[in-house]
Amino acid sequence: MTALGAGTVRARRRLAALPLLDPAGPHDTRQPHLSGWQLITTPGVEADEATLRAAVAHAEREGLRVLDLIPAHLDTGSALGLFRLLDPAAHRTDRCAPGHGAGHALLVSDDVHRRAGLATAPPPRSPADLFRLARTLKEYAPDATGWAIAPGLTPLPPDPARRAGELGARGLPPGLVSAAQLAGLALLLKCLVSAPRWGAAATALYWLQPVAVLAPARALRPADLARATALRPLRSLSGALRTLRTPPAEPSAADDAPARRAAYAAELADGTDRFFEPRREDCPWCSAPELAVRVRMPDLLQGKPGRFTLEECRRCGHIFQNPRLTQDGLDFYYRDFYEGLGGEGAALLLGRMNGTYRARAEMIKPFGTPSSWLDVGTAAGHFCNAARAVWPDTRFDGLDMGEGVHEAERRGWIATGYQGQFPDLADRLAGRYDTVSMHHYLEHTRDPFAELDAAVKVLAPGGHLLIELPDPQARIARLLGPHWLPWFQPQHQHLIPAGNLQQALAERGFTLLAEQHGAAHQNNADFIGAVALIANRIAPDPHAPWATVPATRARRAARSAVQAMAVPCYGAAFALDTVRTAVARATDGGNAYRLLARKEPG
Question: What are the UniProt keywords, alphabetically (predicted)?
């Protein structure tokens, strides 16, 4: 009941934060109503000229480059779903917040329209396409995206058949969302039986929540409010069941899916042994021959074939993949993770770490003001985007192996993107930067010493090097074994104890300025991560193009069943991770650590 009450209050607060366009207000009628702007709508949605002028005037007055227009008569279900995801006041200034919208119309400045490449993109065919586009455009206008209620905008009629596709377009797993919805209804029923008084109160609040949120609204007036409220439990039940029955969008439906599947089949025809180098007999950090197996596991991230071993040096504690992957092996296992098929999921995860990004950027504050910052292993530049809120006058550049650096340039998250290996580019960038960061980067590299040497070259004397890594000495790693997410096999090649890294920095002329453990703790990387890995291990995605077994109906059903059964496990894991994070902060003993060091002159 407490959660329902809090959700109701939160939704009303978010609704109150939405501005209402005034089509009858004073607007400049001398200019074309869309001068400098583009309107993108879902088929069937129309806006009159007065509404467009009001929208343009509002966007220019507020300094917006993207404005999501919400129909005043948006249906009840869509309105409640929107307010679960969208906090207009907070998301307006949060550079990393996802771009949720109503899926009807987007007003986009010509500049953002051009940089996002929309001139040659196909027009949206459904609300789901506009949901995806809203997320994309928020990335191109991270602090200049807004939302407004548009009375003159035509609303689309609700269609339960679209729900699964729309949830996926919003970045939400339809199966898990529906399973959670069914679990909530079951909990209400249980409360009615076990505690009738409290159960009746909670059920009444759930039943009447649409009216409590929307009925007193001055701007949003769903035409179906009374009917949607009266039928809410029945609609929730039928909608969740229908969504669960809706087959997921299969990779084979994509234009390039057959070629992708054939390419993976050809690579796997010769097995995975060729992706590994010979096993080494000594530690790559200290050369000691005293090695012991720490953990063995398959690929629990993507479910690609292969098994991986991490060994630990008994002398220095360094943990490394042994045998390690060849460069061809790395290419195979990285493929479709950060880009391609897995690009959208990776972007969602990276986009939800704003607090972590700001904490990294703020670690520099006691020691100076950076003017030129190179983020090594930047991926698509999410850290740089968030760090601009801390250091608005700093030039941020990024370096990575993937194409994401060029997308980060187009978004304006970094000034210059360098694609390639850091050691190969170090001479070209020598002495250019007063700050270099490596956030969860060194553990991915084949030779951490070469990466540190490159940082020495690139940094100017007195410059700062900021490094964040998983902490292999975290006690939780032994408790969770192969299901500790930061092992991250097969991508992580080296897991470096903090003491080893401090020594390597000192040998290269760095002075340690600050060290953080609890503050660097990655929330939800322990228990929630373990549940996700276990669920994926029990029932891997049968639609993946590298799957070695057919995607039969039984396998699809098994995966759906495992995902549904994992929902309560995620709830328990979330509670455990919350406690774990509080303990980590209090004891300075998290699952990751940060080091800040200064390069001394000479």
Answer: Methyltransferase, Transferase
Structure tokens at 487: 């092992």
532 located within any domain: no
Instruction: Name the strand (E) or helix (H) holding 81.
Output: helix 76-85
How far apart are the C-alpha atoms of 448 and 283, rounded to whole Å? 13
Please name the residues in contact with 49: beta carbons below 8 A apart, sequence gap of 6 or more. 33
Query: How many structural domains comprise the chain?
Result: 1
User: For 47-91, what is each residue's pLDDT tens digit?
Assistant: 998 999 999 999 999 999 999 999 999 999 999 999 999 999 889
- For the entire predicted model, the pTM comes to 0.88
- Domain holding 10, by residue range, is 1-246
- For 441-451, what is the mean pLDDT? 97
Cα–Cα distance for residue pair 217/134, rounded to 1 Å? 25
Which range among 46-55, 387-396, 466-475, 502-511 shows the weakest confidence by mean pLDDT?
Answer: 46-55
CA nearest 364: which of 439, 443, 416, 426? 439
- How many CB atoms are closer than 10 A to CB 32? 12
* CA 540 – CA 560 distance, rounded (Å): 10
Closest CA to 385 of 144, 172, 148: 144
User: Do 20 and 148 contact (CB within 8 A), yes or no?
Assistant: yes
Phi/psi for 130 (5° steps) reads -75, -30
* Residue 251 pLDDT: 45
Query: What's the token pair of residue 18?
Result: 């939405």
Give the long-range contacts of residues 282-285, CB within 8 A, separation 24 or more: 283/313, 283/315, 283/316, 283/318, 283/320, 284/318, 284/320, 284/494, 285/313, 285/316, 285/318, 285/320, 285/494, 285/496, 285/500
Q: Classify residue 130: in a domain, yes or no.
A: yes
Q: Let me know if residue 521 belongs to a domain.
A: no
